[in-house]
Structure prediction request, 103 residues.
Amino acid sequence: MEKLRIMLAEDHLTVREGIKLLINSQPDMQVVGEVGDGGAAVREAQKLAPDIVVMDVSMPRLNGLKATKRLKMTSPTIKILTLTRHTDDAYLQQLPRVWHYAP
Prediction:
């Protein structure tokens, strides 16, 4: 059975390590890359071509919303799971527009 290839984009190392432990403990999943900012997320996802990117919304240099939009333009087959601790409606209202971005 082929494992689901997952890349983590999260700027907090402790959170990233925890998610990685959970994913890698699953027999059908594997973390294939990790980054700490949105710009690196776009570059690494294009290079690694994971099945899924777990994307934090709030990251330095390029936030997760902008990184997701860029990834949808350049690598539309990659699925993106967005993580956020924000309950602000402004963030939440932007997510569907970014997920369904079509060039």
Q: What stands out?
A: The first strand starts at residue 4 and ends at 9. The mean pLDDT is 87. Residues 13-24 form the longest helix (12 residues). Residues 69 and 97 are 9 Å apart (CA to CA).
